[in-house]
Amino acid sequence: MESDSGVSVTVACRTLTEAQALLGNVKNAHPISLDVPNQQALDAEVAKHDIVISLIPYTSHATVIKSAIRQKRHVVTTSYVSPAMLELDQLAKGAGITVMNEIGLDPGIDHLYVIKIIEEVHKDSGKTDSFLSYCGGLPAPEDSDNPLGYKSPDLPVERYSIPEGQTILRGTLRYQGFPEFIHEATTDIAGAASASEADLRDAILAKATFDSEGKKRIISGLRWVRIFSDENITPAGNPLDTLCATLKKKMQFEGEHDLVMLQHKFEIENKDGSRKTRTSSLCEYGELKCYFAMAKLVVKVVLGLFTPSSSSNTVNL
Predict the structure, then answer these.
(1) pTM (whole model) above 0.70
(2) Tens of pLDDT along 153-188?
(3) Which of 124, 120, 114 is nearest to 168 (CA)?
């Protein structure tokens, strides 16, 4: 969009300094401070533009869409369609605007390719008996240096139009050990005699059902999170929010690569009764001092390519 002659972009954040930092030296763009709950201010800014790209938390998308309906402006998001957003469907159609959602990586690229394959199978009078889809945004293997192997889904079966499917699964990829750690370590660990490391460790191990190596991994992970530490923490609303705030500090990408992996696997029955397996895979690494793989695939590639076409109510793929 930056290179298109005559296209100007406004970046709105609650604080002006954040908007300025996001823009950097981007041409034809300017930052503003905007508080989304302020309807009058939101409407005024929306009215100045042809398309609104909402990358704020999904709980606020409906507020943005309502403003776009009032001002008859198109909206694009990368988020799943929430019930609050779906309720605005008829109002958006009545206003003659396009509200495009789920146009990123997952959801987004996965939807586009899945529909392409399923339509090809149906066109040849075949059936898709099984569809498996996995996607994960991860640290690159060389930067996966914590016990979780991680740093900082809706299942739209009916939209895929495969009523014949016997198996449909969409999962999230994580490095080995992550599910076991989360499942066991966050399930009812209360009941220790005291807050000492020994008592907490004994209480956790008494409830864990893994073998010796699995238990060692859990304790190692909790020790890394500093669960057993006496250091002061900053409370953040409730225990879960406090834990999330702690993890956010410890799981930053600093001079490191991220990795996105996406794989689809289709089990197909052809018209003549023969069977075949069709697999598609995507593997993308982030670039240092440039785009993270997640940002590249969600915003730069998919959202960036789709947005200009929204103003004409057409999509060219």
Answers:
(1) no
(2) 444 555 556 666 666 666 665 556 554 554 444 444
(3) 114
Which of 129-138, 172-181, 232-241, 290-299 shows the highest mean pLDDT?
Answer: 129-138
CA gap 5, 37 in Å, rounded: 33
Residue predicted with more confidence, 126 or 225? 126
Q: How far is CA 245 from the centre of its chain?
A: 19
- Catalytic residue list contains 4: no
Domain 178-249 = CATH 1.10.1870.10: yes
In the chain, the amino acid numbered 237 is G
CATH 3.40.640.10, applies to 109-174+254-293:
no
Q: With bands split at pLDDT 50, 70 and 90, how would you rate the model's confidence at 189?
A: very low
- Cα 144 to Cα 139, 149, 152, 237, distances in angstroms: 5, 5, 12, 29
Helix 61-71, helix 39-46: angle, nearest 10: 60
What is the reported pLDDT for 317? Answer: 46
74-77/275-285 β-pairing: unpaired
- Considering the candidates 35, 89, 106, 211, report the single residue annotated as catalytic: 106
CA 109/CA 305 separation, integer angstroms: 12
Q: Does domain 9-104+294-310 have CATH number 3.40.50.720?
A: yes
Residue 166 phi, psi (nearest 5): -90, -25
